[in-house]
Write a structure and sequence with these properties.
There is one protein chain. The protein starts with a helix and ends with a helix. It has 78 residues and is mainly alpha-helical. The protein has 2 domains: 36 residues, no CATH class; 42 residues, no CATH class.
């Protein structure tokens, strides 16, 4: 049995046998918070992401190696 399975089984057993309401509520809070999105984006941020996705779909981008090359060229001129 791997570690993940052992930990899950141990937690299940401890939860099942617990009569401590505060402990169970604390666990519920942990589970609820872990299921929430890590970041909450506002409308402007979501719109920017959508615009960028559209640009990618339309091929409006340059490869990373090309961008690095262009930046190095630009820096040489400074």
């Amino acid at each position: 049995m791997d570690n993940t399975t052992q930990i899950k089984n141990n937690l299940i057993s401890r939860i099942r046998n617990s009569k401590d309401l505060n402990f169970l509520r604390a666990l519920q809070t942990i589970f609820d918070s872990s299921e929430q999105e890590l970041y909450q984006l506002n409308n402007a941020q979501n719109e920017s992401i959508d615009i960028c996705r559209d640009e990618l779909k339309n091929g409006n981008y340059i490869e990373n190696s090309k961008a690095i090359s262009d930046i190095k060229e630009w820096l040489k001129k400074k």
